[in-house]
Amino acid sequence: TVGAVAVDIEGNVASATSTGGILNKMEGRVGDTPVIGSGGYADNEIGAVSTTGHGEAIMKTTLARLILFHMEQGQSVEAASDLGLAYMKSRVDGLGGVVTVDPQGHWAARFSSLQMSWAAAQKNTLHYGLYTGEHFTQSI
Amino acid sequence: MLPVVVVHGGAGHIPKERSEKSTTGVCSAVRAGYAVLQGGGSSMDAVVEAVTQLENNPSFNAGCGSVLNIKGEVEMDAMVMDGKTLASGAVSIVRNIANPIQLARLVMDKTSHVCLAGEGANQFARSMGVPEVPLESLITDYSRMRWKKNLEPGANPVECQMGKMG
Asked: For residue range B96-130, what is the model confidence (pLDDT) as tens digits?
């Protein structure tokens, strides 16, 4: 699965997610990606999220909207992302990862799986990582 | 603070020999999305451009490089959402399309619906002039190898894809 979130100069947020699904899936199986609130969500009044991971677990917890709910309650993008992923792990034993932004341009890339490749670009700086805690930067 | 683009590949286990390509791929995609924003493009333009780049990169499970279903075929899903209007578009179980994310955006922009699935999504693609591509063009040697490996008795495709907890 791949995805992206962004904030433009006017403060508009957007989300996009795309996937081939899960290995050797049943014909006709639909995961979280095309489901609003699960594979992604975007609302200028809160922020935007794109998700990846156990599709069925993500759908059961509507992970993207859950993270935005936590942001509505005052959590930061990072804390809200972690809360959503932790709930999915504890409630349905699902692993995954997310990228999250708020309309001010705060952003986070968080995951509960072993790895997730991610990258961000802001203020002419490229940020990227693969393992938990990795955060490399370079000038664009 | 603004503007910003953030992209991701799949969460799970990435074999060491593929990790560098995965990192290079997300960095390249985020640069493409950021260039759109720097050129005055919208956040929607930026995320579609970034995800299109990732779909075209065979290192990722989307577009070219998608995993195969039990029949050895490619069925893809994609969705976009615009935070300004809450407009959304999605396609599900779509086949023979190089960039499902662009088709999802067309569903959002050109129809009153939120999601089109299966043959209906492909019919919509034809009506919009989106070219269909051969199935083989979306399948990589790596995805075919993983499909064959997970046909074996006792295989656990989900564990194979997601790996262990970090």
From this structure: 999 999 999 999 999 999 999 999 999 999 999 99
Query: A95 burial class (0-12, 13-18, 19+ CB within 10 angstroms)?
Result: buried
Token pair in block for residue B155: 């295989």
Q: Do A20 and B61 touch (CB under 8 A)?
A: yes
Query: Does residue A11 come out as left (phi exceeding 0), alpha (psi in the -120 to 50 range) or beta?
Result: left
Q: Is B160 exposed, middle or buried, given 0-12, 13-18 or 19+ CB atoms closer than 10 A?
A: middle
What are the structure tokens assigned to B48, written together? 């579609």
> A90: which 2 tokens?
């504890």
Cα A41 to the chain's mean position, in Å?
A: 9
Q: Which of B8, B63, B84 has the CB atom closest to A50's CB atom?
A: B8
Instruction: Provide the chain A residues 52-91 that lie in CB contact (below 8 A) with chain B.
Output: 52-54, 89
Measured CA to CA, the distance from residue B162 to residue A95 in angstroms comes to 8
Tell me if residue A75 falls in helix, strand or coil: coil
For A87-119, the pLDDT digits (tens) are 999 999 999 999 999 999 999 999 999 999 999
Query: What gap in Å lies between CA A124 and CA A102, rounded to an integer?
Result: 19
ipTM of the shown complex: 0.98
Contact (CB<8Å) B6/A44: no
* Average pLDDT of chain A to the nearest whole number: 97
Q: Which two tokens stand for residue B74?
A: 């490619």
Listed in order, strand segments (DSSP E) in chain B are: 4-12, 76-82, 88-94, 115-117
Q: What are phi and psi of A129, to 5 degrees?
A: -170, 170
